Amino acid sequence: MGDIHTVYLAALFVGLLLCLMSGFPVAFVLGGVSLLLAGVGILFQHFDASFLAAMPQRIYAAMTNDVLLAVPLFVFMGAMLERSGIASELLDGIGRLFGKRRGGLGFAITLVGALLAASTGIVGATVTTMALLSLPVMLKWGYSPRLAAGSICAAGTLGQIIPPSLVLVLLADTISSAYQKAQLAQGNFSPDTVSISDLFAGAIVPGILMVVVFLVYQVMLTFFRPESCPPPPETEAAEMTISLRVLLIRLVPPLALILGVLGSILGGVATPTESASIGAAGAILLAGFGSEHRKHANIALLFLALAVISKQVIFSTFDVPILAERFILAVPVLVFFGYFAIALLRCVKMGAIASSTTETVRLSSMVFMILIGAAMLSLVFRGFGGDEAVQQLISKVPGGPYAALAAVLAVMFLLGFILDFIEIIFVIVPTIAPVLLMSGIDPIWLAILISLNLQTSFLTPPFGFALFYFRSAAPPEISTRSIYLGVMPFIGLQLLVLILVAFMPSISTWLPYTLR
């Protein structure tokens, strides 16, 4: 039966590849091809139909998964922030701060990309917004089109490694399931788990390192290729000023949102789903009041922070009567909800709620449909002995588990040229992760390496999504060839950070294990 199962596995792989390349929807390809081959296998008694009996349980588990419940909330938060005008404010503020310097706009784009990554995490919105706002100015000042394209596209991909990243949210569930499966296979019937907070904490230092590497590269260009990033003309340099007060006003909303979401998760104050809800509420505030009434959103967030600090710090330290505690908390909470109700009404009137909800439903349904299709593929793959085949294949890689890990990451990098990150997370990772984890590889380290690897898929042609978004917003005089050449150095920098984390695992594991 081993040889015939190999034939079925080969047919499964070829069928998936052909259907995916033909343009069929991914979710239906994963489920349809798997079910078709399972039916053929059952017909010729080469497949045990009992494997398919687990499918309803898999679907129910996915729909009731607390971790995956955070996905639509984070998507909604990002969609609302896209409509809040916060990106243009940050670009204007930080651009004025660095604009007088040679290469200053490149620095500003990288820093704004990092801030937007930590508050929205949506690549398309970040790349498109920065291309529309910054690219005309960069070209006007004489920046190299390649450098401008590479800087904007690379800054947009920071949302895939800097939390709260959708990649990390999806990986948390996949890696945790693989880690538990690996422990059960080794006889540990009380397996540990990997949480979203573990991956968020593990990604913070690599994310900051990625930003620093981008900035160092841009600084080096000012010395070795100064003609590619000139300072602004003298007539415009005088306008590139901003007061500290105005800069702080523009930085407070995204920083407050970042601290509220990430701080509550890493501090153990709230679950990821609850923190995503906080982020969604904050995004409604920022979008509802807009830039012209930003102070009202800041006041509401201040009262919310006051309530949280009072509850977590003051009342847990001092003995305060319950009635007094409730009365004191009621004041900031009521003020916050008053401002929130006004912001919500304004969002409804300007159509932001409807458009953001539509975007959330579209992306979330795509994620869950692919998840269901991947669950069917996983069952059929396992029924044909795919797990054992992968385990034998990886065990035969010369050099031990770390050489096998390097080979897997190399294959993932190549798959990133043609596959979406969601497909890789739901199809490839569940197949190879249990085998790697059984060899003693740290699950958090593995997840961060995969996340860094998947980040490059947004820049690698021909299907890099950041390239598509930039092409749609860029003027015709910037050729597609210039865009591809512009992102090449940044792909190399991303791989450099991946190599650094691979050789120094503590970069990704120190913070999560410290916070545990």
Description:
With 516 residues, the protein is an all-alpha fold. The longest helix has 32 residues, at 352-383. The chain has helices at 2-21, 26-43, 55-63, 66-82, 86-98, 104-119, 123-141, 145-156, 166-185, 196-224, 234-237, 244-266, 272-289, 294-317, 322-349, 352-383, 386-395, 400-415, 421-438, 443-456, 465-473, 480-503, 506-515. The protein is built from 23 helices and no strands. The mean pLDDT is 84. It has 3 domains: 1-71 and 373-384, no CATH class; 83-242 and 385-516, no CATH class; 245-350, no CATH class. InterPro entries: DctM, TRAP_DctM. GO terms for molecular function: transmembrane transporter activity. Its main location: membrane.
Attribute tags:
516 residues; mainly alpha; 3 domains; 23 helices; globular; TRAP-type mannitol/chloroaromatic compound transport system, large permease component; plasmid; membrane; transmembrane helix; cell membrane
Specify the helix fraction band: over 70%
Q: Low-confidence stretches at least 5 residues in length (pLDDT < 50)?
A: none
What is the oligomer described by this structure?
Answer: single chain
Structural class: mainly alpha
Termini gap: 47 Å
Q: What's the total helix number?
A: 23
Q: Which whole number gives the mean pLDDT?
A: 84
How would the global form be characterised? globular
Sheet with most strands: none
Number of strands: 0
What string gives the helices and strands in order? HHHHHHHHHHHHHHHHHHHHHHH
Question: Can you tell me the number of structural domains?
Answer: 3
| Rounded Rg | 24 Å
Which percent range describes the beta-strand content?
under 5%
